[in-house]
Design a protein that fits this description.
By secondary structure, the protein is an alpha+beta fold. Helix content is 30%, strand content 26%.
């Protein structure tokens, strides 16, 4: 197997500024970071950001297609999470490209079902990855197309090894089995979110065989990836980080930019109205 490695922990909100930012407050000049290899990361716990004012602000930005998609979702929780994710995506894109109103962005999906920015065009294209789960929403924006974020609620799993048998590589299953029972759930969600973030970053969905690549979590906290022989990817271009936004959530970011040490991750304050 070939392998890569990178650091593990994400920066805190204090490194990007303190407190929430008004949703209506956007820079009037282009954010210089559009020309820099950065990942802008927004993470919101629904207990903190899911307010009537925030929902109204997000709803006002969405397209008719997005509103129709929300109406088709099965539960109110799913509807709110989708609304918050698309709202913060639009606000985050316009933070980098402030000449564009947040409501003006248009999205389409490619042949693999991956959403992308279709319009308006800007000097350097922006790419994004969204994830939401029970109680948490995450959005990553980057100038690099191979970006993926995943967040999962961690309080429902009963049998980590049973689930891992269907989704993990042999090496990951063996590592999970070596851990004491009380540590297996934590490592399961590390693997799960890292694998999901990598799959999202690759952008080809179920065409990736989950058992043919392994996440490597080392004792020093560094994270890497290893591929089975013949797997079509270069492990050295990948960097990974993981975090716990709350005691009940696990989050991971995959970065395929190939930059030494990976693209810097900038935790942005959630844009509250």
């Amino acid at each position: 197997m070939s392998a890569s490695h990178n650091q593990g922990a994400l920066p805190t909100n204090r490194e990007a500024g303190t407190g929430p930012e008004p949703a209506c407050s956007r820079p009037t000049a282009p954010d210089a970071s559009i020309f820099e290899p950065q990942i802008h990361l927004y993470v919101g716990l629904c207990d903190e950001v899911d307010t009537p004012a925030m929902r109204d602000a997000c709803r006002a930005l969405l397209s008719d297609d997005e509103k129709a998609r929300i109406a088709r979702l099965a539960s109110e929780r799913q509807q709110r999470e989708f609304l918050l994710a698309r709202g913060v995506l639009r606000l985050g894109l316009s933070r980098i490209a402030p000449a564009i109103d947040p409501s003006a962005w248009r999205f389409e999906v490619d042949q693999h079902g991956r959403p992308f920015v279709a319009a308006p065009s800007i000097a350097r294209p922006l790419h994004f990855s969204l994830s939401h789960t029970d109680g948490c929403v995450a959005c990553a924006i980057s100038g690099c197309e191979t970006i993926g974020v995943d967040v999962e609620a961690t309080d429902r799993l009963r049998s980590p090894l049973a689930v891992a048998e269907h989704a993990f590589s042999k090496a990951e299953i063996a590592e999970l089995a070596r851990l004491p029972a009380e540590e297996q759930a934590d490592r399961f969600f590390d693997y799960w979110t890292l694998k999901e973030a990598y799959v999202k970053a690759r952008g080809i969905g179920l065409l990736l065989p989950l058992d043919q690549f392994s996440m490597l979590i080392r004792q020093d906290g560094s994270i890497g990836i290893a591929f089975a022989p013949g797997f079509a990817d270069d492990a050295l271009r990948w960097s990974f980080t993981k975090d716990s936004p709350s005691p009940h959530h696990r989050l991971a970011v995959a970065d395929g930019s190939g930059l030494p040490g990976g693209s810097p991750i900038v935790r942005q304050p959630w844009p509250m109205p």
